[in-house]
């Protein structure tokens, strides 16, 4: 259903470096640069990082990225923490969502709640 989305970040190059590291275990990479905007995806340009336009505090966004397996969720979490993210929830099962929901949550450089999730057993 979602073709693409954009999130505002305080420092596009720093955030792009962060997402280079945390999306690699999920098979995603930079796909395009258009001026100051940088996109990521596995195919296409699903996630765009764009410069913040307001001086006020940003509103938190929650993004959940699909992981092909639980090992990729683990690798996402490790890469994110190594890249300076705050760990919100280490990888684990979340049976309250459904019995095979395996996810990890981190806070990115701009305070967004970023998740990797695998839905298979």
TrEMBL record:
Residues 1-119 form the VOC domain. Coiled coil: none annotated. Gene3D superfamilies: 2,3-Dihydroxybiphenyl 1,2-Dioxygenase, domain 1. It holds the Pfam family Glyoxalase. This is Putative glyoxalase/bleomycin resistance protein. It comes from Streptomyces tubercidicus.
């Amino acid at each position: 259903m979602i073709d693409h989305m954009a999130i505002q970040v305080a420092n596009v190059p720093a955030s792009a470096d962060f997402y280079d590291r945390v999306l690699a275990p999920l098979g995603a990479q930079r796909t395009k640069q258009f001026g100051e905007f940088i996109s990521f995806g596995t195919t296409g340009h699903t996630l765009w990082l764009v410069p913040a336009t307001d001086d006020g505090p940003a509103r938190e966004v929650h993004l959940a990225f699909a992981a092909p397996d639980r090992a990729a969720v683990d690798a996402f979490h490790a890469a994110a923490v190594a890249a300076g993210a705050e760990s919100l929830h280490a990888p684990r099962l979340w049976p309250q969502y459904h019995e095979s929901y395996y996810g990890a949550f981190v806070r990115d450089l701009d305070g967004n709640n970023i998740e990797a999730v695998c839905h298979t057993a």
